[in-house]
Amino acid sequence: MAMGESFGSEAHRLLPHRSNSETAACSPFPWTVAAIGQGEKLAQAGHIVAPELLSATLAGKSTGKLSPGELAIATLPIALFYYDNLTQQRHYLVEAVAAGGGDLITADAVIVFGYAIAQAIKEQLTPASFTTQILTYLHVSLPESVVRSAELISTLEILKRLIANGSELQGVIAAFQLDAETKPMSIEIAIALYCFLQTPDNISLALNRAVQLGIKLDIVGALIGALVGTHSSTVGIPAEWQCALQTQFATPEFSQRIDHLSAQLVSAWSGVYNSFILQEKELPIATVPWVVRS
To answer: If both were cysteines, with which of 41, 77, 102, 146 could 97 make a disulfide (CB 3.0 to 4.6 Å apart)?
Structure first.
């Protein structure tokens, strides 16, 4: 009973909430602004139209270069849109990361997250063996990254060992805190993967682990949310949290914009012609892509 109460109070503490100054709802993170801009262009054109898009959407919104974890969220629409074609997904992620000021090492980390998103959507993600699956993917599809991104490979090997050994949280905290000092390029994505893979069907426990790890919680939480969302859809997010997101954390207009953009992206991916002109309250009918229907 005490343990249940502890988890319950922790989940309540993790509920999204608006800050006293109300700035949370009015000033999204730079990577959120970039993701929305990327998604809107994708929905409008049905494909990537300009590699400069990411840097354009970030203009005036960021004071420095985004980290791999931040870029993974900023480019999330690309990872989602091309989940069924990993070659195209890699290509466009590299272009978008370059436009955002990142190099190929940064792109490798973003590609790992895009691959995780794709496997979650296709229901081909097995938590116990997923780090092995990622490493195999990198060795086969991106052999140059094994040498170029030795830091990323090392972090994934550590992640694989922690999961295989069932390491206690204190040992995980020590390993990741050390990694945060020596391998800052890939730590956010590695922590998000660890927290998600431990309890892929329970976002509150995944976020609870992230809180206890205490490293870059804002972006790690966003990465975990993206993974849980693609793995379990909205069913995996507690109803209380969904209500809080709709009424407390974001303005109604912002929530409606995100919902409408999601519908537009699905319809564009499915082959609906010029879905961007749909009215806000219209929901398109989507079918198998590239198949003409009445």
So the answer is: 102
**Residue 129 lies in domain:** 29-237
Query: CA-CA distance, 136 to 278, in Å (whole number)?
Result: 42
Nearest to 113 by CA among 27, 30, 35: 35
Residue 272: inside a domain: no
Position with higher pLDDT, 271 vs 94:
94
Q: How sure is the predictor about 291, in pLDDT bands with cuts at 50, 70 and 90?
A: low
Residue 14 lies in a domain: no
Left if phi > 0, otherwise alpha if psi is -120 to 50, otherwise beta: which for 22? left
Residue type, 27: S
Based on the structure, what is the number of domains in the chain? 1
Asked if 176 contacts 187 with a C-beta cutoff of 8 angstroms, the reply is yes
For residue 21, being part of any structural domain is answered with no
- What SS3 string covers 246-280? HHHHCCHHHHHHHHHHHHHHHHHHCCCCCHHHCCC
Whether residue 194 has pLDDT greater than 70: yes
Residue 34: give its domain's CATH number.
1.10.4080.10
Predicted TM-score of the model (pTM): 0.81
- Asked whether residue 63 is domain-assigned, the answer is yes
Tens of pLDDT, residue by residue over 130-139, are: 999 999 999 9
